[in-house]
Amino acid sequence: MSWQTGLIKTILDPSNWIISTDVAVVIADKFPKARHHYLVIPKADIASIFQLNKTHLPLLEELHLLAHNVIEIRGEKIDNFKIGFHAEPSMQRLHLHVISKDFVSSCLKTKKHWNSFNTQLFLPYDSLYTQLNIEGSIKRLSKVTKEALLATPLKCNQCSFVAKNIPSFKEHLQDHSAL
Ligand code: AMP
Ligand code: ZN
């Protein structure tokens, strides 16, 4: 089984489920990029956002509800979270990221990790839902756009600080969380 199917393997084991319904499960991300990082994954075999069409809108609403549920179960506030999809996902089976905005984690190691959640490489749930509703499908970003977004400077999501490198950026994010 290739690494791209790791999520499918993980959801086969019920001990990994934080929440399970008829249509989806919620699991913890194995390499969390923040203090809280969960994935909401449908039971239906949908490979990625690029397979979605308008018939999936009710399913997406269910995934979004489960995203809110896991935040509540953890006793956290919805406003402290980002809920959405990677515009260029790497792992198979559609998955909705539910991630806290602190981004304090030993697994956050690269500029790509940061920019994949904090530029247009991250498609907030509402944006994806609207795009699907209006256009009927989700379009891929062009290679040029992706490369430009990946090269975006490390700009803090909580103040105007721009870091020179990942180690200083991680220290900065940690300082916000300690306040
Ligand atoms: P994406 O870039 O949207 O495809 O993100 C895939 C996510 O799955 C990343 O946040 C990884 O940390 C996470 N991940 C990778 N393998 C596993 C696994 N076996 N179980 C749970 N999460 C995983
Ligand atoms: Zn800051």
Write structural notes for this entry.
This protein has 179 residues and is of the alpha+beta class. The chain contains 6 helices and 8 strands; from the N terminus they run H-E-E-E-H-E-E-H-E-H-H-E-E-H. A 6-stranded antiparallel beta sheet has the order 1-2-3-5-4-6. The chain has a two-stranded antiparallel sheet with strand order 7-8. Strand 7 (154-155) and strand 8 form a beta hairpin. The radius of gyration is 16 Å and the shape is globular. The termini are far apart. The protein binds adenosine monophosphate (AMP) and zinc ion (ZN). The site of zinc ion (ZN) has 6 residues, from helix 6.
Relevant terms:
about 180 residues, alpha+beta, six-stranded antiparallel β-sheet, two-stranded antiparallel sheet, about 15% strand, globular, binds adenosine monophosphate, binds zinc ion
Q: Measure the end-to-end span.
A: 44 Å
Question: Helical residue percent?
Answer: 25-40%
Largest sheet: 6 strands, antiparallel
Rounded to an integer in angstroms, the radius of gyration calculated over CA atoms is: 16 Å
Spans of at least 5 consecutive residues with low confidence: none
Question: Could you give the count of β-strands?
Answer: 8
Mean pLDDT over all positions: 97
Bound molecules: adenosine monophosphate, zinc ion
The geometry reads as globular
| Count of alpha/pi helices | 6
The amount of beta strand, in percent, is 15-25%
Q: What is the string of SSEs from the N terminus onward?
A: HEEEHEEHEHHEEH
Q: Give the spatial strand order of the biggest sheet.
A: 1-2-3-5-4-6
- By secondary-structure content and strand pairing, the structural class works out as alpha+beta
